[in-house]
Design a protein that fits this description.
The complex is a heterodimer of chains A (187) and B (609). With 187 residues, chain A is α+β, with helices and mostly antiparallel strands. Chain A has 7 helices and 4 strands, in the order ααααααββαββ. Chain A has 2 domains: 56 residues; 111 residues, Alpha-Beta Complex (H-NOX domain), CATH 3.90.1520. Classes of the chains: A alpha+beta (187), B alpha/beta (609).
Chain lengths: 187, 609
């Protein structure tokens, strides 16, 4: 996993709970905690940090990843404003492979970005297949929900199939709508 | 919510925790710097690598010879890798199939130190699979040896050790898949393969292959050019041999033809029946035709050699056209073609080369008859416009395709129709040559209605009105008190007989000499009114005999001498005249000309009488 993801997690945790909380997660998970955005670090370390956060918050892994996705989005918008020039959340999400990840690969050579297969459901919803070895579909969901919030839209995210339930890959069906006051900020 | 961790910490614990955080931050910064420095190094090396590839690509594109490109590549690769020695191997031009040999191109950071190694590399040659160059040749790929001292297939291991060389790599200059040359490099210590370098070498190898390929192609082009030059020389030699053959053949054919025509002409004077005359006329006409053919072939060879000379003379064109019409009418009738003449000419003799005009016209008429189907018409047209004579021959054939109109006047260029008709592709070329020689123009164009109109026009001068030409008759000759005394030097018995027959009615007193020596002896011993001197004779030729008679003392040296020869070339005639001849009679002997010569000799005889 690229160091930039660890930095992002640190920033999200720091903003939500203060910098001391990150120290606690480092110590609870037993990782080195030394992360440079340019470096590569074992996937086990991000899993250990997520597990520690889950333990502290009494949340499962998916819930932590989803929280991370939602809360990482405003930080990403500050760091990479160019990615957020899309007209709406759907266009932003649809540009994930060709715009966002292609730029990520330029900045971080060797980054193993997941691939999303996109198609439009007969209903008009966006159908995304999530193809990754890391099983972080909940993080993807968090990112989609965080993006909707950033663009001031509501989103309905259905996780129609999942590798954790034996499917060959995860599939999401996503519909966007105008903002609803409660969904603007996810948990 | 995550509990507010650390809120109940003691200040000491809090300080320790913050120190740990600071230490983490420092380490992360150090790691980031290390990564950045390494990236910069990679970037620099990548730039160097690209510069190397570019340098070699440029060298390969601009170099005229592989040696230049190799020298540059060896130095550039040594600079890039820090390796010490580079050497290039090629296939010898004379042995493109191998083995690989040292090209003589090398680079060495310390040339003196490794002189022996280089000399040994120069002496060896490498078969496919043998040693480092041979292995690269066999695999078509770059090859790396960690330490040549420990390599089982490295014949130069000992000298390499003495030169302090250990690691080696080599790569091919590739022409497509084919190895065109091999470049090898050495380092002074063992080294493991460098994958990035090997990949770069593949790119460089393809670039260097281009210069080798260009070199090869140039070599092939040179060889091809040499082969062409040899062929051209052979063709020119063959052409000279052909000309020589034609000259000899011409002489050999003219000699018996002289007899045929002469005897036939003599026979005309005999009291023959009408049928016999007709048969004899046939012999005479065929013989004359044979002579014309012979002249045509000679003409073409002369035209081809740019040696043709126009022989200008006055003649009656109208009569000539009538005669051509009458000669060709029977053939036209055989083919059920109507041959007509439409001549708009003044009653005047014109001056041009009669033979060439006739030959050109006859060729065109003959062609026209070939291409005109039965029931068709061939029209000969003649008109004089000021000082230009224009002759046309219009056939009733299929016509000539516009794209062929130029081409058919070139030697051996024919249309398919011409080939089908059995032509040799020479006729129109001879016509074009003739007309060019006379300063005229020739061409063809579609005729009005059906067929093709071939035309030519030549500048002519209009001579005096036609007068009856008095051919000296035998009666004139015999009207003198004594017969003309003629000495004829002629080695050929047939030709002696011709002269005898031709001159008999003139009442000439004929003495024969069978060679030049005998002719000189006879000329000095006796007095003659005329000497007819054959040129080619055994013992002494006619030219030498002419010279000896002219330098002799006494009356004999003034005797009129006319050369009698089948050597019909203009430069021969000039040579005889310069040698003191009074005239030249060309075999086959034309009776009117022979009598004209006799007539010139009459007056002194008459006076003497």
């Amino acid at each position: 996993m690229k160091g930039v993801v660890f930095n992002l997690l640190e920033e999200a945790v720091g903003r939500a709970f203060g910098p001391d909380t990150w120290d606690t997660l480092i110590e609870m998970s037993g990782v080195s905690g030394v992360y440079s955005s340019l470096g590569n670090y074992p996937d086990e370390e991000i899993e250990a940090l997520v597990a520690a956060a889950g333990q502290a918050l009494s949340l499962n892994r998916d819930a932590v990843l989803r929280w991370f996705g939602v809360n990482a989005m405003p930080i990403l918008a500050e760091l990479y404003p160019d990615f957020f020039r899309a007209p709406d959340a759907r266009a932003f999400v649809e540009g994930v492979n060709d715009i966002i990840h292609s730029e990520v690969r330029k900045l971080y050579p060797g980054a193993a970005c997941p691939h999303f297969r996109l198609q439009t459901h007969p209903s008009g919803d966006l159908v995304m297949d999530y193809l990754s070895t890391r099983s972080m579909c909940a993080l993807a969901q968090g990112f989609v929900e965080g993006a909707a919030a950033w663009f001031g839209e509501s989103v309905e995210f259905q996780h129609t199939s999942c590798t954790q339930h034996g499917a060959p890959h995860c599939t999401f069906q996503i519909a966007w709508g105008p903002a609803k006051s409660e969904t603007a900020q996810a948990a | 919510m995550i509990p507010p961790l650390g809120s109940d910490e003691s200040p000491n614990l809090q300080i320790e925790r913050l120190e740990r955080r600071l230490a983490r931050e420092r380490e992360a910064r150090k790691a980031a710097e290390t990564i950045a420095e390494s990236s910069l190094r990679d970037l620099y090396r990548e730039q160097q690598r690209l510069a190397l590839v570019e340098t070699i690509a440029t060298a390969a594109n601009l170099s005229d010879h592989p040696d230049e490109a190799f020298a540059l590549a060896l130095r550039a690769i040594c600079d890039f890798t820090g390796w010490r020695v580079g050497q290039a191997y090629m296939f010898a031009d004379a042995a493109p199939g191998g083995p690989l040999v040292f090209s003589g191109v090398w680079h060495d950071a310390d040339p003196e130190l490794r002189r022996e190694f280089r000399q040994i590399s120069d002496r060896l040659s490498f078969d496919r699979g043998e040693g480092l160059p041979g292995r690269v040749w066999a695999s078509g790929k770059a090859c790396w040896i960690q330490d040549v001292a420990a390599d089982p297939n490295f014949p130069r291991a000992e000298p390499a050790k003495r030169a302090g060389l250990h690691a080696a790599f080599a790569f091919p200059a590739l022409i497509g898949e084919e190895v065109g040359a091999v470049l090898e490099f050495f380092l002074e210590r063992p080294a493991p393969p460098d994958e990035v370098l090997l990949k770069t070498l593949d790119q460089i190898g393809a670039q260097l292959g281009r210069v080798v390929e260009r070199h090869r192609n140039r070599g092939r082009t040179r060889a091809h050019t040499l082969a062409l030059e040899e062929k051209t020389a052979a063709a020119e030699a063959a052409s000279r041999a052909k000309s020589a053959f034609l000259a000899v053949t011409s002489h050999e054919i003219r000699t018996p033809l002289n007899a045929v025509l002469g005897l036939s002409q003599a026979l005309q004077r005999e009291p023959l029946t009408a049928t016999q005359h007709e048969l004899n006329d046939g012999v005479l006409a065929s013989g004359e035709m044979l002579l014309r053919l012979l002249n045509a072939v000679l003409d073409m060879s002369k035209i081809e050699a740019d040696k043709a000379v126009a022989e200008m003379g006055d003649f009656d064109l109208r009569a000539k056209l009538d005669s051509i019409l009458s000669i060709w009418t029977p053939r036209a009738e055989e083919a059920s073609v109507l041959l007509t003449l439409d001549a708009d000419l003044p009653q005047a003799r014109i001056r041009t080369d009669q033979g060439r005009i006739e030959q050109t016209l006859v060729n065109l008429v003959s062609n026209a008859l070939k291409f005109t189907p039965a029931g068709g018409e061939v029209r000969i047209g003649a008109a004089l416009f000021g000082d230009r004579l224009r002759l046309t021959v219009t056939d009733g054939g299929p016509g000539v395709a516009p794209e062929d109109r130029q081409r058919i006047f070139q030697p051996f260029e024919q249309t398919d129709a011409g080939r089908d008709a059995g032509g040799a592709g020479l006729g129109l070329a001879i016509c074009a040559g003739n007309i060019a020689l006379l300063g005229g123009q020739i061409g063809c164009e579609p005729a009005d209605g059906v067929g093709e109109r071939f035309w030519f026009d030549v500048p002519v001068s209009v001579a005096a009105p036609i007068a009856t030409i008095a051919i000296a008759s035998p009666v004139n000759a015999t009207s003198n008190d004594r017969a003309l005394r003629v000495l004829a030097a002629e080695d050929n018995a047939g030709n002696r007989r011709v002269l005898e027959v031709l001159l008999a009615p003139a009442g000439v007193e004929l003495t024969f000499a069978e060679n030049g020596e005998a002719a000189v002896a006879a000329a000095l011993a006796d007095s003659f009114d005329l000497i007819l001197m054959d040129v080619n004779m055994p013992v002494m030729d006619g030219v030498e005999a002419l010279r000896l008679i002219r330098v002799a003392e006494g009356e004999a040296s003034h005797t009129p001498i006319h050369m009698l020869t089948a050597n019909a070339f203009a430069d021969d005639v000039a040579r005889y005249m310069a040698g003191g001849a009074d005239g030249v009679l060309t075999k086959p002997i034309q009776l009117p000309q022979l009598f004209a010569v006799l007539e010139t000799c009459l007056s002194p005889v008459a006076q003497a009488a």
